4-alpha-glucanotransferase
Amino acid sequence: MLLNLGSHSGIKSRSTVTLVFRLPYYTQWGQSLLICGSQPPLGSGNVKQGLALSPSHQGDELIWYAKVSVSAGFSCEYSYYVVDDNRNVLRREAGKKRRFTLPSDVPEKAVVEIRDLWQEASESLFLSSAFKDVIFGGEKDLDADEEGPDVSLKSLDWQDSIVVQFMIRCSKIEHGASIGVTGSASQLGKWKTQDGLRLKYAGDNTWKAELDCLVLFIVYFTGLLHIFVLNHSHTYKYYQVHELTDPTLELGPNRELSVDSQSIHPPNYIVLADGPFRVTAWRGSGVAIPMFSIRSTDDLGVGEFLDLKLLVDWAIESGFHLVQLLPINDTSVHRMWWDSYPYSSLSVFALHPLYLRVQALSDDIPENIKEEILKMKQQLDKKDVDYEATMAAKLSISKKIFDLEKEKILNSGSFKTFISENENFLEQNWLKPYAAYCFLRDFFETSDRTQWGSFSHFSSEKLEKLVSEDALHHDVIFFHYYIQFHLHKQLSEAADYARKKKIVLKGDLPIGVDRNSVDTWVYPNLFRMNTSTGAPPDYFDKNGQNWGFPTYNWEEMSKDNYAWWRARLTQMAKYFTAYRIDHILGFFRIWELPDHAATGLVGKFRPSIALSQEELEKEGIWDFNRLSCPYVRQEILQEKFGTFWTVIASNFFNEYQKLCYEFKEDCNTEKNIISKLKTLPEKSLWLEKESKIQSDLLELIQNIVLIRDPEDPRKFYPRFNLEDTSNFKALDEHSKNVLKRLYYDYYFCRQEDLWRQNAMKTLPVLLNSSDMLACGEDLGLIPSCVHPVMQELGLIGLRIQRMPNEPDREFGIPSQYPYMTVCAPSCHDCSTMRAWWEEDEERRCRFYRDVVGCNDIPPPRCTTDIAYYIIQQHIQAPSMWAIFPLQDMLALKDEYTTRPAVEETINDPTNPKHYWRYRLHINLDSLLLDNDLKNLVKDMVINSGRSYPVEKNNGIGVAAASEKKQAEKDQEGIATIQINGSSSNRSSIPV
């Protein structure tokens, strides 16, 4: 237990005011609380030097106190931490740091008590731009300087007065409404809201201005009431009032105000930092679709940024609050359809030319170019995206328009401003390197920069020569500027439209970048170029996934406080108010593969605590070559290849001792095996069996039990699913038991603290880089540390019904999902709801029986009734967000299900060269005219309680009706939230 020694030793005698911090919080044995803040009395930002709090039981509550002497003018930012006896952080409260400024008129020797509440993660979500600028943006019509109850501190007799400052946060407040407080004291109206105290909106003029708080009022008690306060507790609640509706009290138990009558030095000034206004848990809904999948009457072969305005309109009219996209950055690495993969960025800052609307490049496009655009629109109006033809058409047409208007655009003020802003963007000059890279890629006809001669290695001097206005290719450089300028304009127009319509635009932050990208060229020190990123075997692929991206050099990135990541988030925030962190598990640990791997099976986690040779030897494990080299015996070759085994052996193996084989040097990696198969003589003899031969050879080279560390040969990592290998099965029982135990320890025990620490270094930097609402894709093999960290940081998780987090379940139960989640029946990385239903009869029967509750034989097709049931399950879930792929919503109507379900799949994760080309088979213009579908969806949204903000009726907000309906469901346990750790009756569900 930490000791509280009272005043901070660093405070000099001139300090005149005593600050008392008070926080109700239940801790576990061995845990303590401390405050860390920006000023020396609170540790100057160093948690180890923070101010310790001491506990005291008061009734059923455990209250933590600390006091410190400060001088006039004291101001600080601070947060509370749960720590162990060595001051190691176990948990940090969520949200931004608190701010406090000592009132200037507080006299010498006064006691100021700050009564805080632990800030839960669910509270911080509503401080994001998604809520304060979009969903609730414009709701408050309050003036920060309006008249309100106040106190002149100079006029008080501080010997006979207690000043109480009430403070409450309220994100969700309708136009024309205000906040008040009522309670048992006469000054609070004796529970009559008409006599309660109205509060004033303080805006940026308060000590919590950065949280968009409502500081509500200051009131003082004197004389008889002063004695009354000292000897009694007063209860109170906040309420919302609108001139056209009845006042609405906040939910939850009464709040309590009391002062310890036994205290030698009772406070003169109490700050009641009462946290959030307690209302029913807010829940929203949205639609997800890749940018390239959108179809409209104006597009040219693919969805375009300006099409988002149509999608926003459809979302609004269907009752949704959010539109979610896949990554939209440029992926033009190969200049072919491989670039359709949206997660393999050429640049994490540049936008993809694929999404450009060429008709919007100019108001004065010549007739011949207009005719060309019309012709290409007709040619490219196909079932799926023709990536190569569409890119070629757009770049060709754009170049013609650029050549005609070059002088005009290059001299325009807006274009020059765009260039200037992105030349010095958070120390990341991305535009010039991007244009130079594109020029070199096209000039050398490859993105493999090892073939660029002297330009293989980046330098500022080389860059300036490449982008110089005196260069012969200067028009090429400026053409890339021109394309990015118009992409920025068009996406900004769509993003502004979404904000005005109160629709959250949610982007996607990919976990990796392409190996041959602008970012790896300019910042090679930030990447481990001899490695590859992937994921271990999971629901998506039994062989794991190999995405081909280099892993990050986190140690190098930390030297400038992750400036590259901060720049990425700042750039995203120009357009989006929410974002999805792709593969958030990678910020805890990444599945790292050697660059010669073709699959994702034989990898290791980075960082991780390896098995040392000494550790293994103590357990009786000695034959490390046997365990870490492919185990190939003659009988294995005969079993796999039959009579063909001798041909395989002669081409791929050396017999190093009788009946024992090792791979030849030219095929001793996965990629080498694949390459050799393609170059064997008499190719026709292999064609019939090539796929099977390749699969079996890869299985043999993966037939190891331990992976030796390439940088330290005395360290080893257990191969994933090692028990499935014939190498393992051939071991003695003792070795098997030891390795099984160490395997479990490596993957599920020993790394947890390390992975938590790793995530806490990086994720807070990302979250503090913007005000966007952050959601994490937490699917796959999830360490036990992940969800507590996400909860602590205020990160929303993801729940896909067919991929439950619980290992003993086949299907997730949406009604049991936690509040801080996004729920969805499918996503871009799996088959759609219809395709999933139809692809596996036995699984369909189990779902129909165990989830739907029907023992009959389920229909072979996903009927509209089945689709309605599954969507209804999700839309009624407690999850904060229910976000549905648009394909799944179209399944609600028969006329949209004529296309084979399998054709609606966006990605096949088992295919590393999948062609991302799915397009809607109906254009958004037509979908907007389908009132039946829109009304069906909107009714589902409203009936689920996910309908705030809702339409107004004669100027009167009707959100209260929806809230009442949802509150009734909350009473039935449908949408409740547990607030962990807090013991105060002032804690509840926040908005």
